[in-house]
Structure formats: structure tokens, C-alpha cells
């Protein structure tokens, strides 16, 4: 059970170490998995302008706890590389250390004491499990779910599965395949990262975990949750308007990369209707500028050359049909933070009805 080596990549930036680092380190020191079989890689993704660096604090904490922590490596960056770029810095270092598994660890979370042991056991139980995640609960409201495996909508929308539901309502206490894995806490296989590539840095942040999950699934691997492993997450839904540009751009990245042409043609009418609705919501919610910026991105020839390269690689490497790839796709958006009557009583029923029809047609 303890024969696999595991690297924990803890990515943080700005003042996050001041708020979360100590609790995260305490939880790592409390792991039942032998520290001799683990490595800790802390990546500090720089700090904001006119803000003091937290790098000295990180170095101090790693020195203070060095006797109780796994062997630690501190990688300070001189600029913010984004969630994807920062994690890739840690992943590359972990691969150089030739570990078996790599756990990506959000800055604002902490592991249950048995989390790594249980995730490792799941990964060892089946070589076809490409990556896995623990049950992610809110912190300090530990009785509420943050993610019990994330949901992938057939139009490319992505959201936390069973968000804010009581943990007693979890769909299964056993490990199961999920639509996609949350990047907040995801255990990955080093050999698959070497073979199939690291996180896609063109995403920067948002939908990168969806892309990696679909990459694995399209090549015949499963993505699973282990509910007995728990990650406590001080999650806050970001209402920063700037995120919508990346979310909308990256949503199309995913669809145009992984869907076959017939599938894209089938979903196109509903995508058009969804775009009309999204523009309306963007106007009402104050992020029209970001939505238009996403449209402008796709007017550039360079954007289409980039997506063509991504698509060519993905389609050549895939081993399963769209029918199977979309078997866990959802037709509704059920996320408390974006709940409204138009979505609940108009958009969701229409999207569901359309999906019920076209998923019968998709045989390829």
C-alpha cells in the first residue's frame, strides 16, 4: 500500500501563504502515508504589485517544520504563471524526482489525515484510473459538499458536483467515475503526464481540469472520486468579472478540441441559443465586455490555427467514441451560485429536451 512515491504540489500566490499555508502544512504532517514516500513541492506564483512577497514566510515555515515534513522543495516564481503554468512548474520538478503520483493541492485547502493513503490505494487498484480526486468539502462548513466530482455540460459549461449539498446526500460512498475532476485536489499518474502531456498552459486558469479529464477519458482512462478521502476547501465563488473571458474562451477550446465534427454540428443550434442567453446574462450581470472579448479572440486567424493543432493531436490520440465520451455529460446546470428562474424553468428544460433527442443520434 505504501510502495508508491507521491509528490504534493502546493501552488500559492499573493498573500495566500499568510492565510492558508500553516494549516495545509499541519495537515500534510498528519498524513498516515509515510513521509519518506512523499515529496512536498511548494510553488509561489509571485505576488501582486505594491504587495510584499510571502516567499520569506514560506521559507521560514518549511525550515520550521522540516523534521516533520516530507523532503520539501521551494520554487519561487518571478511572475504569476497562472494556475496551469504554476502547477506545471511543480509537476515538472516532481517528474524529475521520478515519483509515481502527483497530487495538486490548492492553496486554500487542507487534507484529511488519510486522504493521500486512500487516493493512492484507489490509484493502485486499477491501472486504468488515469486520475482521481477526494471528496472536497467546504471549510469550515465541513458538512457541506464543495465537489463530489465535477459536472460537465454538453455545451461545455462546468461546475461543482453536488455543491453545498449535505455530505449525507453523496451519490455513493464508493469510488465512482465522474464527469471530470476538480483541479483543487487531483492525484495524477506521472507516467501518463509524461506520455500524454502536462496541463495545457494556453488555458491559464479555468476549464484546464476539464480538459485534462477529457484528455484522459478520450484515451480510454477513467477519472474517479474516492469519497473516503477528504479535502477541506475554503472555497469562495469568485465574482470577478475578468474570469468570464477565460471561462467562455476555454469552454469553446474544450468543445472544438474533443467533439467530432458531426457532434459539433448537432450541438450547434443549441449553442447558438445558449450564446443569445449568455449575452443577455452578460449585460444584466455586468460582464458583457469580457464576453465580447471572448468573441473577438475567435476572430483571430491565430486562434483557429492554435485550436486546429490542439484538435489534430486530440483526435489522433483518442480511442473512444463521442457517445462514450459524452456518457457522463449533463444537460442541466445545477449550481447554487448561478441559480435563477430563467435558468431553472426555461433554459434547463430546453437544453435537457434537446439533449434527450441528439444523444440518441450520436452513435459515432
TrEMBL record:
<protein>
    <recommendedName>
        <fullName>Glycosyltransferase 2-like domain-containing protein</fullName>
    </recommendedName>
</protein>
<keyword id="KW-0812">Transmembrane</keyword>
<dbReference type="Pfam" id="PF13641">
    <property type="entry name" value="Glyco_tranf_2_3"/>
</dbReference>
<feature type="transmembrane region" description="Helical">
    <location>
        <begin position="261"/>
        <end position="283"/>
    </location>
</feature>
<keyword id="KW-0472">Membrane</keyword>
<comment type="similarity">
    <text>Belongs to the glycosyltransferase 2 family.</text>
</comment>
<keyword id="KW-1133">Transmembrane helix</keyword>
<dbReference type="GO" id="GO:0016757">
    <property type="term" value="F:glycosyltransferase activity"/>
</dbReference>
<keyword id="KW-0808">Transferase</keyword>
<dbReference type="InterPro" id="IPR029044">
    <property type="entry name" value="Nucleotide-diphossugar_trans"/>
</dbReference>
<keyword id="KW-0328">Glycosyltransferase</keyword>
Amino acid at each position: 500500500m505504501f510502495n508508491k512515491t507521491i509528490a504534493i504540489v502546493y501552488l500559492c500566490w499573493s498573500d495566500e501563504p499568510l492565510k492558508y499555508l500553516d494549516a495545509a502544512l499541519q495537515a500534510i504532517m498528519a498524513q498516515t502515508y509515510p513521509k519518506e514516500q512523499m515529496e512536498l513541492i511548494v510553488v509561489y506564483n509571485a505576488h501582486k504589485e505594491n504587495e510584499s512577497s510571502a516567499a520569506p514566510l514560506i521559507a521560514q515555515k518549511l525550515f520550521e517544520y522540516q523534521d516533520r515534513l516530507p523532503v520539501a522543495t521551494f520554487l519561487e516564481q518571478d511572475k504569476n504563471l497562472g494556475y496551469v503554468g504554476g502547477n506545471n512548474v511543480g509537476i515538472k520538478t516532481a517528474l524529475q524526482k521520478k515519483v509515481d503520483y502527483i497530487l495538486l493541492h490548492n492553496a486554500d485547502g487542507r487534507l484529511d489525515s488519510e486522504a493521500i493513503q486512500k487516493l493512492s490505494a484507489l490509484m493502485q487498484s486499477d491501472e486504468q484510473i488515469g486520475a482521481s480526486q477526494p471528496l472536497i468539502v467546504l471549510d469550515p462548513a465541513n458538512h457541506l459538499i464543495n465537489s463530489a466530482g465535477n459536472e460537465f455540460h454538453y455545451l461545455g459549461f462546468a461546475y461543482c458536483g453536488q455543491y453545498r449539498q449535505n455530505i449525507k446526500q453523496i451519490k455513493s460512498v464508493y469510488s465512482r467515475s465522474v464527469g471530470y475532476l476538480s483541479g483543487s485536489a487531483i492525484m495524477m499518474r506521472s507516467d501518463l503526464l509524461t506520455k500524454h502531456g502536462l496541463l495545457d498552459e494556453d488555458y491559464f486558469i479555468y476549464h484546464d481540469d476539464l480538459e485534462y479529464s477529457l484528455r484522459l477519458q478520450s484515451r480510454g482512462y477513467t477519472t474517479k472520486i474516492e469519497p473516503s478521502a477528504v479535502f477541506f476547501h475554503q472555497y469562495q465563488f469568485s465574482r470577478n468579472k475578468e474570469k468570464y473571458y477565460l471561462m467562455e474562451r476555454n469552454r469553446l477550446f474544450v468543445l472544438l478540441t474533443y467533439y467530432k465534427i458531426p457532434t459539433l454540428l448537432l450541438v450547434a443550434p443549441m449553442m447558438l441559443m445558449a450564446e443569445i442567453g449568455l449575452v443577455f446574462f452578460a449585460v444584466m450581470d455586468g460582464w458583457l465586455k469580457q464576453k465580447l472579448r471572448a468573441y473577438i479572440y475567435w476572430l483571430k486567424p491565430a486562434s483557429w490555427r492554435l485550436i486546429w493543432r490542439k484538435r489534430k493531436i486530440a483526435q489522433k490520440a483518442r480511442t473512444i467514441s463521442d457517445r462514450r465520451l459524452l456518457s457522463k455529460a449533463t444537460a442541466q446546470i445545477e449550481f447554487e451560485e448561478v441559480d435563477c428562474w430563467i435558468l431553472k424553468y426555461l433554459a434547463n428544460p430546453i437544453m435537457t429536451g434537446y439533449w434527450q433527442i441528439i444523444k440518441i443520434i450520436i452513435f459515432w
